[in-house]
Design brief:
This is GTPase Der. By secondary structure, the protein is of the alpha/beta class. It is built from 11 helices and 16 strands. The site of guanosine-5'-diphosphate (GDP) has 17 residues, from α5.
């Protein structure tokens, strides 16, 4: 079913609109009794067109947090998962910087977007719309989520822009970014991966003007290397035109599923490597750590392990990411990268059923009871996976702010172990439910 996602800053009326649209069918996807307020996914049908409505409301609890990196990333992800996005703005409050910020995210996504201006209760209030044209919107829809004004016009338009049936790509293409500090060997690795023996299907223009992605096949599976403009060796004599800048590396992280983090092992693991790994982690990519130039490292049977240990210590936050030693120069183990990529990607895109998730959560809660915190008895109600890439879980708690960081980490680890998501980043969002 097509996915329609509601975005907007806190308190613009997302959940009111969500309830209004999904109530029209009285069917709830989630079977948790008595919690309609906390629903994130709901089913709706309009003019015979069925769709799933997603409320991203829980991502930003208050205005202050809104610009924070992780929330932006979650919204971007939610947008990426959507077929159509509805941006809801506040007709009473007027245009806010948040709206502009969201517009940037939406425009870069190239998804169909409808713009709804809420809290307009009737025709006589439609002048509140005018300032929203300053955002460069062609057709803002005046609505009142609370009273229903304009909602049917919005839905008429919505079902007309929903793609008839979600076009499933004939085969899934894994998007890979190669990142690392200058001279770590990124270009060499890319050239290896796109080596002579492989068929490069095409170079596709990416989202930014100068970005070029390379699509290629290995064992009949398609992969896409992000941002390879000028990197690919066209002939034996042509030298690469453009080197990777850090900025370019970071930009490619926004579009990838899996980041290959290339580290110059001959040089040791540096702070810069760790901070690049940090960026990849923050963006929520699946990560594989590649200790490159292994041919240069003087080694005995303990060397690789010593490197892995050092890496784990320096980048604890990526302890779940597979690491391997390679040589882009000699090609050693480069071809094995693909099976690692496949394995991480499979986890990265996994959906865990609500039943399994709550079983794991329930057991974890029994094994290690949530401690009293700030005098509050913590109660965890249930959890649901709300998105993939990476797997993101929302857990409803009575006092989310009182959950200690270490207990949160405990739960994350339990979810990892219980669901087999051992090599992908996962996210756990705690949401308030009073109850
Ligand atoms: P980039 O800046 O990350 O794209 O790095 P390059 O691919 O341009 O590599 C920087 C230098 O390291 C070049 O001189 C490469 O030939 C060399 N290099 C890259 N990978 C390896 C490797 O695995 N072993 C050795 N010995 N040299 C490498």
């Amino acid at each position: 079913k097509p996915i329609v996602t509601l975005v907007g800053r806190p308190n613009v009326g997302k959940s009111t609109l969500f309830n209004r649209i999904t109530r029209s069918r009285n069917a709830l996807v989630d079977n948790f009794p008595g919690v309609t307020r906390d629903r994130i996914y709901g089913q709706a049908v309009w003019n015979g067109v069925e769709f799933t409505l997603v409320d991203t409301g829980g991502f930003a609890e208050d205005d202050q947090d809104f610009f924070a990196g992780p929330i932006r990333a979650q919204i971007r992800q939610a947008v990426q998962d959507a077929d159509v996005v509805i941006l809801i703005m506040d007709g009473k409050g007027g245009v806010s910087p948040f709206d502009r910020d969201l517009m940037t995210v939406l425009r870069s996504s190239e998804k169909p977007v409808l713009y709804a201006v809420n809290k307009i209760d009737g025709e006589e209030q439609e002048e509140r719309l005018y300032e929203f044209y300053s955002l460069g919107i062609d057709v803002p829809f005046p609505i009142s989520a609370e009273h229903g004004y304009g909602v049917s016009d919005l839905l008429d338009e919505l079902v007309s822009v929903i793609p008839p049936s979600r076009p499933e790509p004939a085969e899934e293409m894994i998007k890979i970014a190669v990142v690392g500090r200058p001279n770590a060997g990124k270009s060499s690795l890319i050239n290896r991966m796109l080596g002579e023996e492989r068929l490069v299907v095409s170079e596709l223009p990416g989202t930014t003007r100068d970005a070029v992605d390379s699509i290629f096949k290995v064992n009949d599976k398609s992969y896409c290397l992000i941002d390879t403009a000028g990197i690919r060796r066209k002939g034996k004599v042509t030298r690469k035109l453009e080197k990777f800048s850090i900025i370019k590396s970071l930009r490619s992280l926004d579009r990838c599923d899996i980041a290959l983090i290339v580290i110059d092992a001959a040089d040791g693991i540096t702070d810069q490597d760790v901070s690049i790994a940090g960026y990849a982690h923050e963006r929520g990519c699946g990560c594989i750590l590649l200790l490159n130039k292994w041919d240069l490292v003087e080694k005995d049977k303990h060397t690789a392990k010593a490197y892995y240990d050092r890496l784990r210590l320096a980048a604890k936050f990526l302890s779940f990411a597979p690491a391997m030693t390679i040589s882009a120069l000699t090609g050693q183990r480069v071809s094995r990268i693909f099976s690692r990529v496949d394995a991480v990607y499979a986890q990265y895109t996994t959906r865990i059923t609500t039943g399994q998730l709550n079983k794991v959560l329930g057991e974890a809660l029994i094994r290690n009871e949530p401690p009293l915190h700030q005098g509050k008895r913590l109660k965890f109600y249930y959890a649901a996976q709300v998105s993939t890439r990476p797997p993101t879980f929302v857990c409803f708690v009575n006092y989310p702010d009182a959950v200690h960081f270490s207990y949160e980490r405990y739960l994350i680890n339990q979810i990892r172990e219980g669901t087999g998501l051992t090599q992908t980043p996962i996210r756990l969002l705690l949401r308030q439910r009073t109850g």
